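Predict the assembly for these two chains.
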Amino acid sequence: MMRMIGRRLALGAFVMWGCVTLIFVIVRLAPGDQASVALGPDATADEIAAARTRLGLDEPLVVQYVSYLGRVLRLDFGESYRLGQPAMDAVLSRFPATLQLTVAAMAMAIVAGLILGCLAGGRPNGVVDRVLSSTAISLQSFPTFWVGIMLILVFALHLRALPSAGSGSLSHLVLPAVTLALPQTAIVARLTRSSLAESMQDGYVQTARSKGLTEREVLVGHALKNSLIPVVTIIGIQTGVLLGGSVVVENVFAWPGLGSLIVDSVAARDYAVVQAAALLIAGVVVVLNLLADLTYARLDPRIRVGAGA
Amino acid sequence: MSEPLLDVRDLDVFLPTRSGPVHVLDGVSFSVDAARTTGLIGESGSGKTMAAMAIIGLLPAGAVTRGQLWWRSEDLLAVSSRRRRQVRGREIAMIFQDPLASLNPGQTVGRQVTEIPRRDGMGRAELARTATHLLDRVGIPDPAQRTGNYPHQFSGGQRQRAMTALALAGQPQLILADEPTTALDVTVQARILDLLRHLRDTEHTAMLLVSHDLRVMAHVADDLVVMYAGRVCERGPAQAVLREPRHPYTKALVASVPAVRARTAIADPLPGSPADPAHRPAGCAFHPRCPLAVLRCRVERPTVREVAPGRWTACHLAEADGLPDAAEVRP
């Protein structure tokens, strides 16, 4: 087990390196750089050239890359020229808000998705299944900004029950979290439903029925646990997606999260912040994947024994 | 003979298919006596597994059942679904064909075999003792340690033993065993059959053994029910049925297995292919493959009648002393 974790962490370091490299190249592929964007369209060519020299942007890309990697290994992620503070500090100051939103949204999505998925998957093609499946597809198809605006219209403007924008209290969290949770609920519910419907065809489910269990006992006690591996996988992936920050939801609700910071930094060619954010998200995703793998082993003893051998 | 434990009367089962319902069991009647093993034999598609599933009440969704299933003094097809569930596991238990697929991969074997007493609120220590005792009864060595193992840590034969322990856990009076040895190695098959026979002798549990294998039947069955295309063609005491079949289909089955008939060394395979219940021939369903078939067999469906004490057959031509030779019958 420990060997598996070690292997995964080593692989994770490799993934993070790849991610950093990719981002390093991609942000520099965009036309314009820090010097030209920061100085604005009125700057002269000499001023821009001087700024480029000062920022080290006139060096060959390979030299810039190697010196950047060297600094990253010493945990120096550079300065944000735009914000005037260390890039990682800027990222970390926004991360808690995104984390809060993600945890709230995924918690809702997991609870609601599992319950709805069980209701639908217990009787595939039954009435509940048909209603829930079509609702889930609609939920997944609605654009997030539209759902967010609708929720604001109903709950903030019409009912005046919840604040429409800003952060800081639990009531501020509700609308953006629900907006993010709705499509995630649909994803979790649909996957739970199909995986469960498949498990309900398995032989051990018939055995459980032959013991005189009720359908609910069969589902909860036998079929569900064996259907959860794909659900855990998708939860891990989707949590990673949400942790990257949702630009749209953050904009609609004026939520001070990672998404808007990244978009603003890309627009300003604030390379240091974009790279620091990418590194942090990659690290979180690596940890999430490791957690998902450890969960598989808990769900399926065959994986546990295979990894220990 | 005493009152039978289970009396199946005129059982009809229709299964839904794309092209409409198929009449997979057509007027099936037989009984299972206490403390005896009744063998249900037939080729694939004969409806023998469907009969077992109908008895335990686990037919696929959409199946329509008619007839009567007398379990002691109640008709299982007429009782509430709640009562039906109570019977499952505690009065009638089932052993399935593929023990690997039939055991939950995510639960320890000990947990699975003691699920019924656990639902009854038995305490932890007592459950552990029960699990060990159950695995011991089915001959798994070192049972106390093995209760904590998962199914994939068991061998094929041990899994089927564990499956048997699971069936025994509810102390049923009747165990339905659906091809319990088919998925196992030949060497393991004999040991599982010995276990089933041992359970009948020591625990006096009645058993309905479903198999396509006459050798299995010759080994353990006390009574035999022969099925063809969803109908019963012959039933009676196993040894008598195998020695002197009163139905041409049984006769052909016996002739196809060299080990059962000592005199012929070479097997005589059954000509033709089994009738499909969706396109059952008119009259006697076996007539297209029957060497004795006469005109009457093509048009009139034979009823199951008692031709000799305890010997029932659905053949127009059967007599008290046996079947006519093919040469005697002119269509």
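Chain B is about 35% helix and 20% strand. The mean pLDDT of chain B is 89.
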